[in-house]
Amino acid sequence: MEELIIIIKYAFLGALQGFTEPIPISSSGHLILAQEFFGISVAESDLSFEILMNFASLIAVVLIYRADLIRLVENGLKYIVKRDEVHKNDFMFIVYLIIGTIPAGIIGILFGDMISENLKGITTIAVALLVTGVALWLIRNLKGRKSDKNLNVRDAIIVGFAQAIALIPGISRSGATIVAAMGLGMKQETALRYSFLLYIPVSLGTIILKITDMDFGELLIPYSVAFILSLIFSYFSLKWFMGIMERGNLKYFAYYCFAVGLFILFIT
């Protein structure tokens, strides 16, 4: 019976992380809130669970954007080999992804542990959710003009720093990067694509740096269940979010962040 309860606990956390990862409401914040209010927690363990769930969401993003990834790699290589101007835009998009990854990479390495240890309080998460809600509200009606071919180094740096800010629990990574991208005048489609393609190198970097810390121990089955659910929920959540972006309904996520943030502040 105890083993079944453990599996159910990890299944819930895996589904929760998967569902909240792509949408702008902070997956890290919701996992902390779930542990605080429902008494559900992972093994004091380690980063194993976090890394595994991160990997599941990464796979979902790669599956959804596989056509874009294949095109970027093929055209990027063609530009390097042939210097064909037709493929320059895709090559430069790759360059901007690399540039956009640097801020979060540096800040994560230097201050990641400090942030995770000192900013996990639910009050911090409540305030961060309110900040996320305000940001989403401010850009809810923006209709940018910049497409993939119009991006520049400045755009990449600013969105990269927005991604770094999302190291704070309660600040949504997708929310921060999409808000920054749309604030810079990107079309919703471009902002969404750049945001989630930017997630790939950061996620890979995290996995590579921390993979040696992984230790499943006796939790192989619960972790496996959580991994599968996180992958499935991440995939369909991202698909759902893409539809919401197309319809310009970001304001509903702002309402949600306001509601949860104020509720937490009220009861604490």
From TrEMBL:
Q: Which GO terms describe its molecular function?
A: undecaprenyl-diphosphatase activity
Q: Where in the cell is it found?
A: Cell membrane
For this protein, the Enzyme Commission number is 3.6.1.27
Name the membrane topology term.
Answer: Multi-pass membrane protein
Q: Mind telling me which InterPro entries this protein's record contains?
A: UppP
Coarsely, its chief localization is: membrane
Its recorded reaction(s) are: di-trans,octa-cis-undecaprenyl diphosphate + H2O = di-trans,octa-cis-undecaprenyl phosphate + phosphate + H(+)
Regions that span the bilayer? 51-70, 91-115, 121-139, 191-212, 219-238, 250-267
The organism's place on the tree of life at top rank: Bacteria
Q: What does this protein do?
A: Catalyzes the dephosphorylation of undecaprenyl diphosphate (UPP). Confers resistance to bacitracin.
* HAMAP family per the UniProt record, alphabetical: Undec_diphosphatase
Miscellaneous comment in the UniProt entry for this protein: Bacitracin is thought to be involved in the inhibition of peptidoglycan synthesis by sequestering undecaprenyl diphosphate, thereby reducing the pool of lipid carrier available.
Q: Which family does it belong to?
A: Belongs to the UppP family.
What's the name of the protein? Undecaprenyl-diphosphatase
| Naturally occurring in which organism (per UniProt) | Paenisporosarcina antarctica
Name the gene that codes for it: uppP
